[in-house]
Prior knowledge:
A: mainly alpha, B: 2 domains, globular
Amino acid sequence: MMGPFEMSTALTLGFALLFGFFFGLFLERGGLGDPHKLTGVFYLKDFTVPKVMFTAIVVASTGLYLLSDLHLLDLEKVWIIPTFFWPQLVGGALFGIGFIVSGYCPGTAVAGLGEGRLDALVTMIGISAGSLLFAILYPSLEGFYLSSDMGAPTLPKLLGVNHWLVVIPVIAIALGLFVFLERFEKRRRSA
Amino acid sequence: MKQGKFWSPYVAGAGIGLVLVTMFYVAGRGLGASGAFSVASCMTLNAVASGFANSLKYFSQYLDTPSPLMSWNVFMIVGVLIGALTGALSTGNFKMMFDKGASMTTRTRLIMAFSGGVLIGWASRLARGCTSGVGLTGGAQLALSGWVFVMAMFISGFIFAAIFRRYWS
Lengths: 191, 169
């Protein structure tokens, strides 16, 4: 059967809850509810964040394009994240600062709270306040927010190549990174 | 580092990747975490100052819908909390605490946790999502947005890490 499927609102929300459950479970079990591990990457102390993140990206992109090639998934009906180049570049950079200051990102703060961390709850309140601040300032931000609208391009489309010519190098780079990180950690442990 | 307390990051990452593929297949959309906070702030404001909330153009995307809380992002974040709680309780990893860097005072940590959160919330709105919604989901789709966000986040994180070294390191 070709996905994605038309579903009732109730069923969609049920799936959101179910998928969220497993996302939260894997985040917690991967150690991503811990702000020391989360900030560890930036001090070259703990590489859990890039390991989890790039494994997830590699697995999901292989799965997505494989399902599409097997005609099990209609890629046209998948909501591809749109690109607004400059807002996302500036947003990503500011997000990185917020990440290092608080020790969390939105999903991992919730995972941290699930482990009993009350500082994560403070960050969650901050995230809500930051959203409110954005909404209040929105009239003066709208011009920038809506700028550099590129639609929803993917790297294979931009490069005009078959998707595997991007997926396979991404897998290779991720594997190379993992081997490097494991060696780096091993050397430091023995040092 | 306490080894063995958590699963291998590769196992956890593969798990998240499989969740993401299943989401694409079943629902045609991916993860999201920051969106729920935006809805939450909108609905909280709406409860205490409805007129002001309705005057904010950005919040009309929620308030113009019949039931803003009955959304994909809101249900997902509730699921994340239950999932994390399940993982922590079932492995004895649950512990009520106020976590902070070794050299941080409680007051410093309170300020950092909150102000970092404000920056994250603000930046997520500007970028149209966070590590989950743009980074992981867009990254897996090979969307330009996902890779721009992830690269900007890591580069900026490494640059600014130097300033906050004395707190976290």
